[in-house]
Prior knowledge:
single chain; alpha/beta; Rossmann fold; 7 helices; 6 strands; 18% strand
Amino acid sequence: MADRKRIAVVVGSTRPSRICGDVAAWTRARLQEGSGLGYGLVDLAEIALPFLDEPVKAAAQQYAHEHTRAWSELVQSYHGFFFVFPQYNWGYPGVLKNALDYLCREWRDRPASLLSYGTRGGGKAAEQFVTVLHGLHMRVLGTHVEAVITDADVDDNGQLRDIEGTLRPNRTLLRKIDEEMTEAVSRQ
């Protein structure tokens, strides 16, 4: 299994009361079912990048800080990316934009897809995010997920009551994404 292509499922929110980690873990497990790829979680809360502090633009790859070099190495260790994030005020979380902006060439030609979520699925955030992925010259897959998570789906602490029941409608799209990802990484 060491020769498996690795895909990062990126947890794109760091909010203390977030559900993003649970959504990403559920998604990773669904993507992994029957896949020949190896899906792993990358949690931006654990990466803990400071607000972009590199003195030189990312395209130059002249990283002054160890946290940037470590982030670069981690990103380069993956063959593709699946980003999971909530929609905040019609956009995607700043921590995710920050993580993308730290690097440039490391993202180039890597296949990518996403799962956005919100009370209406997070489509506005997804649209903005896809624009940025194109700017990074990533190979954006044709399929992504906009998961609807309403106030009725969460408890008084803001946590999902029934993650399987809430996200089950997205299983078919996740299977399709795994197929597209498998095809995309086979061309690397």
